[in-house]
Amino acid sequence: MAPNDSAETNGTAARRPAGRRRAARYIVPVAVAGVAAATIGLVPALASSGDPDLPKITAQELIEKIAASDTEQFSGTVKISTDLGIPSMGGLAGSFLSGAAGGGDGGKGGSSADPQSKLTELASGTHTLRVAADGPDRQRLSVLDQASEYSLIHNGDEVWAYDSGSNEVYHADGKGKAPHGKAPHGKAPHGKEQAAPEGVPTTPKALAEEALKAADGTTSVTVDGTARVAGRDAYRLVLKPEQKGSTVGSVTVAVDAENGVPLKFTLQPSSGGKAVVDAGFTSVDFGKPAASSFDFTPPKGAKVTEADDAEAKAKAHEKPRGDLGKLKDAEGVGAPTIIGKGWNSIAEFKTPGGAALPSKASKDVPAEAQQFLDALGDKVTGKFGSGTVFKTRLINALMTDDGRVYVGAVTKDALVAAANAG
């Protein structure tokens, strides 16, 4: 087993400030689950089968090894599991996840195969993924369920998504045309491009990069021995926030000793217990995948939805909404103010028109939805006045009664302190 070695981060390794890009993901308490989905991602890999003897390496050298990895071809299976501690309420939580992603519009121009809504399902439960990549222009991701399969394929200028359960296809093509006007593929596992929507990490590599961005002088980074993951020798890189008030206890990344590719990602909450995120390869091959892996032809009888048509139909069905609708649109009210730094970053913004959380009296929220909100929320008071903290095991949000929102991977006390200071 390689001896431990540590290095305090100083802002030089694989990051940029957690500024406007990350802040833009913070929506509102109703969409806390969606925020968490964009912040984290995947889960349980194979247990280690003995610790291999590997040459000594420092934490800084291992971070540099990840950053320098140029592996563009691979295929394999990933096990993912997330436990945010969100009550199911008969599947209502899943509906909030879908709504937060902008999909699932009740058939008004939408498609069950739309990746913006479909991939947010990875934010809860346990899933098995098949993944493959051949450079920046070809990737495939399949989510395997007991009775169905969902596939997302990027091949050149085209993106195809297929939901076998509903026999629906979603298609985007033409040099940048993609669902919801976004680029047809988000940041790839190895700094290239992939088929997943922006903000939805789908491999241990993507998750590790998100974690390393937070290692900006507020983090202890150590090499904590070695492991065997998916039959590969790996080093264990451990990141721990040095600041008090973060809901993140530690992040452990198993890094392939040969090529620097993260093979497994585990996020432990500061509150203890089961991992919030535990994602990793159960099998992996770094050879060139077969070209046929990225071919797709819509099955006979499948309903095909074009991205441009879906967007036009969705706009045609838009209509004024009540307070709950205004809250869901809150990310369009301008750039939030970022309070603090590193793991303790908190995004502050105001809801449209200073709207507060809908109450039972407003009759704007269905009874089940109100039950869901009540289950997540704790009433709090302070110098700022009063409000409600909506909590998960990772992301928490405070919404004040005068329409201010504070969101971050921090504790309830940290949110109240930020509101008091504001």
Topology at a glance:
Blueprint: E1 5-8, H1 20-23, H2 32-39, H3 59-68, E2 73-82, H4 92-100, H5 115-118, E3 125-134, E4 138-144, E5 149-155, E6 158-163, E7 168-172, H6 204-213, E8 219-229, E9 232-241, E10 248-256, E11 262-269, E12 277-285, E13 303-306, H7 307-316, H8 323-328, E14 337-339, E15 346-350, H9 367-376, E16 377-382, E17 385-391, E18 396-400, E19 404-408, H10 412-421
Parallel strand pairs: 7-13
Antiparallel strand pairs: 1-8, 2-3, 2-12, 3-4, 4-5, 5-6, 6-7, 8-9, 9-10, 10-11, 11-12, 14-15, 15-19, 16-17, 17-18, 18-19
Helix pairs in contact: 2-4
What does this structure look like?
The chain is an alpha+beta fold. The protein folds into two domains: 5-23 and 42-313, Clam (outer membrane lipoprotein receptor (LolB), chain A); 323-421, 2-Layer Sandwich (TATA-Binding Protein), CATH 3.30.310. It has ten helices and 19 strands. Strands 1-8-9-10-11-12-2-3-4-5-6-7-13 form a 13-stranded mixed beta sheet. A six-stranded antiparallel beta sheet has the order 14-15-19-18-17-16. Helix 2 (32-39) packs across helix 4 (92-100). The longest helix is centred in the first third of the chain and has 10 residues, at 59-68. The radius of gyration is 21 Å and the shape is globular.
